[in-house]
Amino acid sequence: MSSALAQSNSVSGTVVDPSGLAIPGVNILEKGTSNGTVTDLDGNYSFEVGTDDAILIFSFIGFETQEVPLNGRSKIDLTLGEDISSLDEVVVVGYGTQKEKDLTSAITTIKTDEIVKTPTPNAMQSLQGRVAGVQIVSNGAPGASPTVRVRGVGSFEGNAAPLYVVDGMFFDNIDFLNSNDIASISVLKDASASAIYGVRASNGVVLIETKSGKYEQSPEIVYDGYYGVQVPQNVLRMANAQQFVQYVNETGSTADMQFVQNAIQRYGRSRVDPSLPDVNTDWYSEVMSPAAIQNHSLSFNGGSEKTRYSIGGSFFSQEGLLNEARNDYKRGNIRAKIDTDIREWLTVGGNFNFSASQQYVGESAAWFNSYFAVPIIPVYDAENTNAFPERLSNAQNVGYRNSQNPFYPLLYNDNRNNVAKVNGNIHAELDLIPNKLSFRTAYNYRLDVITNRNVNFRYSNGVTELPSSIRKQSAAAFDQIVDNYFTYKDNWGDHLLTVTAGQSYRSEYSEVLFATGTGINPDPTWNNQQYWYLSNAENYDVNGIGDSNGSTLNSKLHYLSFFGRVAYNYDERYLLYGTFRRDGNNKFQQKWGNFATIGAGWVISEEDFFDVPAIGFLKLRASWGQLGNDGITPSVGVPTLEETSTAINDVRVIGRRLNPTYDLIDQWETTVEKNFGINAKFFNNQLSLDADYFIRDTKNLAVSIIPPVFRATERRSVGQIRNQGLEVSLNWQKDISKDFSYYIGGNFSTLKNQVLSLGGPESLDGGSAEFRQRSILGQPFQSFFGYEVEGVFQNEAEITNSGYTNEFISENGLVPGDFKFKDQNGDGLINDADRVVMGSFLPEFTYGANLGFKYKAFEFSTLIQGQVGHKILNRKRGEIIFTNDTNIDAELADNLWRGEGTSDKYPSAAGLRKGWNQNFSTYFVEDGSYFRIQNVQLAYSLLNKQLFGQKMPAARITFTAERPLTVFSYNGFNPEVANGIDRQTYPIPAVYTVGLNLKF
Any idea where the TonB-dependent receptor plug domain is (predicted)? Predict the structure, then answer.
């Protein structure tokens, strides 16, 4: 080895942009080695190189990569020029990419920096408030996924979830992905963007790219993790013992007042108020407490001239808010992604992601029971000697109908899901004609194995003994996709043309096996889990045993598709875009469908006549497209002959009659969408505007209708629903100096959901008979439907002058303290003709806003979001229809009608238990609007620091608050309820975390 190679040389310098501002984080690599460093916050760098004739490679996103020979120098200051091509942001689209400025579609992309700010098991939660037109409904249960709706609801059968495409593979959910493994999430919102996915794209498409290494990148080790606590927020305050007893006395119920006396005899009198039992249980505080959440990931990334790679693993853990029960979620991930140039004309690669999770599902009945449990019984009752294994209290011992104690389902139930998921792909890309024609082939696969075990312990509540039981279910699914497609790119003069054409094959297979056994011997306890197997069951439930192929009629689904895309750009001014996909499958009798789209754009700012200095970019665009939804159950029946009998001359005569009712769902649902958009950038690209107006009509909806004469229900593809709205995003960012920069932005979207057709009927009922929901022509899907409350009768005179007939008043026994329902048609009666639409669970207006700044090593960001115009059915209060010897919430207890002028919102205590006031009305349906501080993060970065003479890794420390404040008027834990019906919804906590990111 020569002395030149053996010696070590130190080099340092500063890297700035063309305006002279320092660029932190520039990657500097000694060419041909893995030796390198990054610039600090002031753009400075310093490291040792192997030779004095080394070549340094300077690279940073948004700037041109430069190679600079050292030539014996010890100091190199460099100005990196802007990479003009990278200023044209590249956006992922189906089977390829496009420059953002060339898009004619509505696509929003969220990068990894924003995704990882949200501590969550599912990365889609990070989109809440960030993407106009996308509604995210949170779920607080450990491991649970949020509800995601893109531009409303487009199916009567409830399948409104978008299609997820992860590195080319199709998914219904991305609960297997760790947020740190995701490079970007792109939401394809309109038909123009989504139509290339055909029959699965009706509800929008979410494209996800996982992280990969970079070519010519020095190897790096990255640790990213956080630890935090989930804190219950907006805990619903229930009536305490004093409020409850007051309420009971006001009902006038002799039986309930006796229950209070029974409780006094059993538990003693309160020393503070002798009229109360010496018990005052706050059940919510008993069943829940703060819980931990954490995430840790480690990755190895890098690349040479011909190969790039990224390998990593992660661990996520989330404990549940419920006490006593196992209620947590753990997930481990291993991933690998590699691409290599085998030849100049051939690149091959693949990625692999393995996810293993264990989820203990907390018994949801605990939330239900905690709301209704009376506060005058304790958690444990030493006198309940017949109860085992624990002497829990039982409200039946003092006269109530049910045990009410929420600790029975907590202590004596264990529900576990073990989930293993393997997915990935292998691919090859050939440059058939350099820089013009390429061919890509990819094989994508996924394997899901889910095992559920639900164990109920044998126990007695002191009155009733319940046997032990075990239910086990194993489900497996294997899907695969083979994609083959050509991409041709060419430009001549002012013309730029990109053509994609290909073929895709997909198969989906699933099967389910389940069984239920009772009388487990020995009895299950927390200390003998080795016996929690069906082989120890004494009896088997015949109806609880099954072996099926999942939810589809075919044991294996096959899809064959042909697709193409043409994107044309003339002189950076006129844009044309079109896609076509022909899908075929064996799920429906209709085997084939065609899905097409066309879009156009006009970049006005490129025209010679356009001379507005403040506007750097202005584009108008419009598109039309057609999509499909095959996420409905096929059903093909025929008219049948039924045997019947009648008596003729006292002789039984057997005959047959035609039953013409049958289900006929032989095709998928079809969506046709029109979209009109504008994109603009102002003031040297510091201010950007993106706006879209869309009209989305979904036809051939599967609907359950009741034909005339025959009252049986039958499903037909006859429904039609429309979603339309406006989406606007506005963002401003500015660099004040090399030390200080800031940004501020916001978005909002409107949504009008309307039922356009039900195949003949004017309406279609949903929900339950007591809490009716109805889809009515011209109204939103599944609107709440009932009586309008005008107030509470304050005196007899108001009842007499109400407009109701005297006979009607007498029949219903109306008294002061009862609701006054609006007589919509003025006939003096309150009946079905007076019911009206009371609102929809779909918000009419959603919004989000974010702001942040960076000062030297400090970074601050905050995100707010909210929804307006949706309703929530407070089903908890509605349960009084079925049982009235339970507790009520404190807000209701404090504001009951107690005489003239005391309340015009709530009835009297006695009125609560009266059938008249229990009619479904606006009393039960509340405003779900809310404002929330969604995310606040403070970060501090350390670059090129030394400790004890040794160089420290680049570090970033973060403090994050997720959902620290939510403001709303709804009487519940949280105004986020997926279907608008709040009966036993898992609370959504605030989350506070401390995080650390290290790069070696």
Answer: 100-205
